[in-house]
Design a protein that fits this description.
Radius of gyration: 24 Å
Helix content: 55-70%
Number of domains: 3
Order of helices and strands: HEHEHEEEHEEHEHHEHHHHHHHHHH
Structural class: alpha+beta
Shape: elongated
Number of strands: 9
Amino acid sequence: MFWQKKLALLLGNHLPFSLDCLPPTACLVGGAVRDTLLDRALDYLDLDFVLPELAIEVAREIAHRYKAGFVVLDEQRRIARVIFKQGTVDFAQQEGDSLEKDLKRRDFTVNAIAYNPRRQELIDPLGGLADLEKHILRMVSQTNLCDDPLRLLRAYRQAAQLNFSIDEATRATIRQLAPRLSKIAAERVQNELGYLLANPRGTCWLTAAWEDGLLKFWLKNATPEKLQQVDKVEYSASVFSEICDCRAYLLSPETIETAKLANLVSCAPEEAELELANLKYPRAVIRTITTSLKYLPQLQRSGASMKLREQYFFFLGVGDVFPTLALLALARGVDGSAIREIFCSNSLAFHRVQSSANY
């Protein structure tokens, strides 16, 4: 069958240890199975195996045999990780007394497909393969979403990553459970937001998450207008690169992501700082965004009419934050000629600041 060949090829090309090291009941589960069936390239080896017993012991033996790194991730749930040069392989003891029960505890049906490599058998008790073919994310159960409310936001992130739609019944359940996301650790929410901001398709799903009430607690100042500005940042990046004829390093993916985030918080730097600190963003990100918000009104107000001396002191205050500020300003309708004039007049100073920051 088509899936059998794909999965066998995945393990044949990427598995950094012999299948003989696994017990006959060990199964590959999760994202690697899903992505292989979707013909998505694996940029980084990240495999998950479920074993009915002795998961940590099997992982330890494989690590010892192949001189790989080894760490116990969760002693109570019996989860361990083996770290190879190519990537990581996790081994987890199944939850419940059968693999099917373990799969029924997962978030979405497309993530609840297992493959037994020794028997070349696909285990799909929840219809995940059919949902893969339809490009639909469907919850396994409402209880599973309640057990870990981060899964509510993860649905939108995975829809963006996979270019899927979300099943209507699943989305209705997410709306109902949305307030539970406020109880999740800020670092975990920040991580999911990062995926959405980094993905070019992420804005439409970020908007959907806002419409469904998932961002009300964490991003209280987000509005439809601000979400439209987030959507303009990718285009603003290409405009900035063209008008300033700048090198690629000025607009790293992190710069674009930070500019998007700056559009979602309060326009008042002090309030924005509190929002970002609440989400546990690093100090460098907070400084970049609050500095951009502080100088944005002056750029909007004066633009190309700034005198050379005024431009100099403006640029001196902005420093290496200028690319983020420029994307923010362009997304909000500031004329590109103003950005170009300020950048060109101070490009030497900017490169000195960049060199100092990189050093």
